[in-house]
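FORM 7B: Structural annotation worksheet

SECTION A. Query
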Amino acid sequence: MSLFKKAKGSRPMSIIDYPELTTLLMQGEEKIGHLAQGHPSWGPDNAEHWDLDQQTGTLTWTFPHMTVTAKAQVLATYSPTGGSWMWAWANAGIQPELASDSGKIRTWGQTHGHPQMLTEAVVAADDQMADTLSELALRITEATGYFRAPTGTCYKVMTYGPATVTTDDGASFTLAGDEIE
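SECTION B. Predicted structure
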C-alpha cells in the first residue's frame, strides 16, 4: 500500500474544531509527502517482504539486492473492514517497549485536552481517519519514517528511526533524519 492517497480538504469534524491539531495535521501530511518522495531507491512499499522483530524492535525490509533495517515503534493496528483503529498501548499483542510512542500520543492528547481519538484505546476509523491519526502521530512523535504494513485484513501502523541499508555485496550505510526525507 502506498503512503497516503486521499482527497484533500475532507477532515474529520473533530479535528477542524482544534486549531493546534489542524496545524500538526498539516505538518504531518507534509512530512508523509516528503517521506513518500524520499524513498525512491528503497521505499518500504516496494519491499518484497517486511518483518518486525518484537524482541529487538527492529523492522526489516527485504529487496532483491539489499535489506533495510530500522528501530521501530508500533502506533496502532488499523482494520478497514472492522472500521477500527486500536492504539498500540492498548494492544496486548504488542510488546510495551514497542508501544511507547503510542503512549506518548495518548499522554500528549490528555495533556493538551484534545479529542478522545488520541486517548481512547479503540477509535472508529475509516481510511480518512486512519490517515489523519497517522499524520498527527508522526508529528507528535517526531519520527523520521512511517510504514503502514499489511497484516492480512489489517495494517500495523509503525514509525521508525534512522534506516540502515545493506547491499548484497556487504556495503552498508545509514540514512537519518533529513536524508530519509
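SECTION C. Observations
Residues 13-179 form one domain. The chain is about 30% helix and 30% strand.

SECTION D. Sign-off
Analyst initials: ____
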